[in-house]
Prior knowledge:
Keywords: NAD, Oxidoreductase. The chain is α/β, with parallel strands linked by helices.
Amino acid sequence: MTLNNKLSIGFIGLGSLGEGLCNSLVKAGFPVAVTDLKRANADRLIAAGAVWSDDVKGVCANADVVITVLPSPAISRKVVEGVDGVLAHLRHGGVWIEMSTTDLEDLKRLSAKAAERGISVLECPVTGGVHLANSGEITVLVGGEQEVFQRVESVLQTMGGEIIYMGKMGCASVVKVVTNMLAFIHLVAAGEAMMLPAKYGVDPDATYRAIRASSGNSFVHETESMLILSGSYNVKFTMDLACKDLGLVNSIAEKLGVPLELGSMTQQIFRRAQGLYGGQAQSPEVVRMLEKACGLELRADGYPTELVAE
């Protein structure tokens, strides 16, 4: 721990989500070492005071806590285990915080390996959208031992707004993929709900405002529907990530014997959109399939092309 009593942080993964989370730590004065496959992703963080490292070993060298925010379970495995991974280089007594949305069983396996090396683990997936990560207001779900949570609570409070302790390891991951499943279901539903009145001749702006003021409103409608109406779709969350998360939640449901009829249907809808528009297409572009089928784009003037926290 540094002289100013702030934990020293290593941060791995500086995509749209990771950069915003890390920036909150840098601005708050935490000593932060960062790395990513693309050094350009770290430029703004370095300018703000973060220190660049070329590899995981360097990020772990002086760290009390290492945070990973990575796009897939396979990449998390590669970064965390092995001779060049976090578990090989983070000191005994350190804490690894996994903020990626990852595979539940893989996380448990890696947590057991970490414990063998005297490293504590928390799962801390986030929910609410990239715009809330950028503003430090994103919700953080925490799974793991409460004592470890209390040791790093100041770090999590710096990155997030509401911090919710979910219980033992695995609980946060389950709830996280459920929240994502709901978001994707709501996205498909919002597209259908706006398209029907549009085909009848209702102004999409009026429909948006009516739904927002109704019992059918949702967080997704309030945010992502605006990106559909502006035509940008740019929520900074790709079709690949959406399909990955839907695969994770449906896999857990299958193991637990829980029938997710809407969840499995939504997974198929997103897979079809992924095939049509590519894995790097934005997740709200799932509505483009409906627009094409109806021969009508859902558009209205005055809507933003990106989301910014108020």
